[in-house]
Design goal:
Strand content: 15-25%
Number of helices: 13
Shape: elongated
Largest sheet: 5 strands, antiparallel
Radius of gyration: 45 Å
Strand order of the largest sheet: 2-1-5-4-3
CATH topology of the largest domain: Beta-Lactamase
Order of helices and strands: HHEEEEEHHEEHHHEEEHHEHEEHEEHHEE
Number of strands: 17
Number of domains: 4
Helix content: 40-55%
Length: 607
Amino acid sequence: MPPTRSSSTDRAGLFVLSACLVAALLVAFLAVRQQTEQHSREQFEQGTRLVKALSAIPLDGLTPSSGRPNPLAAVLRAHGSADLAFGLVTDPTGRPLAEVTAPGLSPAVQPLSADRPAEWFGHGPMDSGVAGLELMEFHGPLLREGRLEGFVRIAFRAPGMGFNASQLPFVAGLALPVLLLVPLFFFLLRSQLRPLQALSARLETFTTAPPGEASARDVVSRFALFLDAAESRIRELESTRNDSETSVKLLGYKKEKVESALETLPEGVLVLDEGGVAVFANAKVGPLLGADPAGLLQKEPANWAIAPEILGVLAPLLGSQAGAAKHTASYHPGADENRRVSVWALPLFAPRDATRRLGTLLVLRETTDQLLAARARDEFIAHVAHELKTPLANISLYGELLRDEPDLPDETRIEAVNTVCDEAERAAALIGNLLNISRIEAGSIVIERQWVRLGDLLNDCMEHLSHGGRAHGLRLRVDVPPDLPPVELDKDLLRIALNNLLTNAAKYNREKGEVILSAEESDERILISVQDTGIGIPAADLERIFEKFYRSADQEAVSRGGHGLGLYLARQIVEMHQGQIGVVSQPGQGTRVTLSFRKPHVLLRAA
């Protein structure tokens, strides 16, 4: 039996030796292949970074001029890559402006399309003009303030798979440890097989020897020890597997938490890796870029950037190791001037290493509301300035007339004084309306209700109108039933609303027209009306007359001035009292504005 076991062990050793030799050759082959692929990846990263760094340089910084050598050659020489085959700077039509080519090469360079921004950044193989030599080209745009000025193009020699003498030390360094492990592995194999061989010999002795020569208890005991050792090893392996699964689940949970947090943000968020490839996009990105967020992943910006402004903010960051500078821009999607999207690009660094770049964060936010608000603010300022300019100019004009002409006739002097008073009242009314509207919209006005006799209030308002110059030549009438019950309202606020309505009735009335201020009651409501016999309101304007700053385009109404705040303020005051306001008008016949409030026994008090 011993000779048989020895020969079996020797055969196993020869098999292990042969397997190790095959493994060494396979490892050497895979190592050379891995080295070639690693070289290709490094070349891709170098090309991507280099072309994006060159894209950040102005066009005149890459083209030669009188008295200055070719700057492109200096930049590529500083890069120091032995695989660099050529560099080229062209204008948008493809005309070369600067060129550097390795000796012996005549690459066929095809022009790029200036009309397709999605193809400005990219890479691909190209013909070198030399048999057996393949080139990998990288290209990018040269932009100035979002405008295309040209292209920069570079190419590297593609690494081959062949084996050469320079790789012999590397292959030998990998194969030597494998071969040195052969005797160690064989020794360990024999040491591990020795207990099994002894157990096998005892079992054979037990089965062939006469009864009593072998101890069955000893054989079973050794076999039990072997099973215990195997079970212990299995438990260790299972524990290691469980720990690995737990780590994987924990990493997945953390990744889901980060992605969930980014999904809840109101902005569109894109995360790009160091090479500029999109690795994450939340759902908000879709409407802002007009694309499915999932379709953006694993693509470069040239494939999804819908505006040159996006490429403009990314160009200084992609492939750059500069500091944590933030770049911003904005664009109008689909050339819609009434819609705006703002873009922020920020570099991402490792939490514990501020010098290690991880990628780029691109944030997109719909800022159309801010755009429209800015336009409304500018229009408001221009409108108020215009409304104040006219009365102030008239006040200044007549003031200078009164100052410089002491011998004016009495009629002219009275007219000048009345004009100054009217224009001052007009400016004060505008400023007062603006202040009241500001307080109402800010929520700083609190209604102070009190019992009000409408007859007294309406007479006071009409008397105030009669003292102004606008009521000159008009018939003014107040019609209030003597038994009209009092109402619980804010007297000061209601006075402001009525004064605005009466001012409009006088301003847009006809010569020798009439203004009627009346009040009446129904079963549950008190109605206050302001009626005039003026020019009326066109039907097209009736739905918008209560909007802030709205003014009719009717030429006769425009000629009489106005700032578009009186009716808006009146409606705000009425609605604060839980009331209603309505208007009925016929062009050329006049206008009737009616305020409606609930009577005292059904009126609900407001805060």
